Amino acid sequence: MASSSLHIFFLPFLSPGHMLPMVDMAKLFAERGVKATLVTTPGNAARIRDSLDRANATGGHRIQLLQVDFPSSVAGFPDGCDNLTAVPSPGVTEDFFRALAKLRQPFEKLVREHAPDCVISDGFYPWTVDVAAEFGIPRLVFHGSGAFALAALRASFRACRLHQLVSDDAEAFVLHGLPDRIEMTRSQLPDLVVSPPDYLKDMGASNLKSYGVVVNSFQELEPGYGDEVSGKKTWSIGPLSLCNRDAADRAVRGERASGECTERCLRWLDTQAAASVLYVCFGSLCRFTRDQLREIALGLEFSGHPFLWVFRDIDGAEEALPEGFEERNRGRGLVLRGWAPQLLILGHQAVGGFMTHCGWNSTLEAITSGVPMVAWPLFAEQFFNEKFVVQVLRVGVAVGATVCSTEEEERALVGKEMVEAAVARVMGGGEEAKAMRKRVRELAAMAKKAVEIGGSSHSSMGDLIQELVGLKKP
Ligand code: UDP
User: Fold this and answer.
1) What's the pLDDT tens digit per position in 24-64?
2) Tell me: the pLDDT tens digits for 98-134?
3) 114 flagged as catalytic
4) What is the pTM of this model?
5) Of 10, 165, 168, 189, which has fewest CB within 10 angstroms of its CB?
6) With a 6 A CB cut-off, is 340 part of the ligand 1 pocket?
7) What's the CA gap between 294 and 281, in Å, rounded?
8) Is 82 considered catalytic here?
């Protein structure tokens, strides 16, 4: 097979939301006979090694892991930390960007030594486009978000440039040039759009110089949001997480959910009725004020529905829980501390709804599991994803968040009544809930078809491999 002569370097960004899909992507390319090399830092290598070893042992893949050192102190990270989960604010700072740039030299050295045929790089490494050019190989970019969000981001930049933004932060304006009519307020736009820092400007230029874009999505989910809107040749090859076919793969996926945590969680879900539980998780980076955590707790309690809440117990968050909260809700609610086996949870038949921050991976994982959402966007492109889920796909309801910010204090408080009301709409037995459930299950079936032989994503990956083989230097 021609693909067996192809060697691709993958350079994931240092956060779970970018790393996990790229690990899955490397596994999928390897499944198709490609030699895949993941390049990352030591702490991150330790996180993903188990998952790669499993793929190599059970699937006979050819995935290798190469390491480059990360200057934690330059990034403002605690010593020895090399992942965005380790910093107090999930924002990508100037210091962090400066540290990422220091990976260039060691990366370049590895490219020289191993001579890959292509680089698939996260968008946060704009310099990989120059490294690839230096060695005469194509660079594809991966942003971690879906095609809709990328198109909405471009439309927002355009609106900013043309001064189409309204002066009032809370007044809605239309994002022109998209297949669907989407309205945003300025307060829902990421900082990246409203006041783009200099160090992020290189990203736009490097995207334009890239060979193309690889997206974790499937054509049937975002029709009309491919090449024509992104402005670059785009391959939708997802949902990538579907490559984790057995329970062990879904449990050990990059980050390691402790065996005990997984057991406890699944045992508890087994005791709950089908589609009765609301799963609550806000991704790997979220932080909330204590006031907000309290409102979430009370909203969940008042909703009366069973819930499984993944709680990030950082900086005294524990004290935010209302007194006696866990005792009062024992049996009906489970508070899980630590890293949850999200794919296993979403795939459990007891789960009937997902309160999510609309990170793209979580959104896609809900869709592929056929689970409707309570959409609670917090920062980055999450408000675009909320619009997509609620207005375009109509498989979720908005909790009513209004301010996009990585700083928890800057976000407007979402009261317990809002939480309760949104949960009731998704978990209740009303017509709206039934229609959402039906639609999301249809999408789940389409997602599975897309990655099967002959499906759109499977074919798209095949086309990309052929194209890259054709580009190989003799
Ligand atoms: N995740 C998980 N367990 C957790 C929290 C997150 O497995 O306790 C996974 C989740 O399944 C998803 C990723 O981490 O694949 C988070 O990515 P997403 O884009 O949803 O959000 P981010 O963390 O980047 O904000």
Assistant:
1) 999 999 999 999 999 999 999 999 998 899 889 987 788 99
2) 899 999 999 999 999 999 999 999 999 999 999 999 9
3) no
4) 0.96
5) 168
6) yes
7) 15
8) no
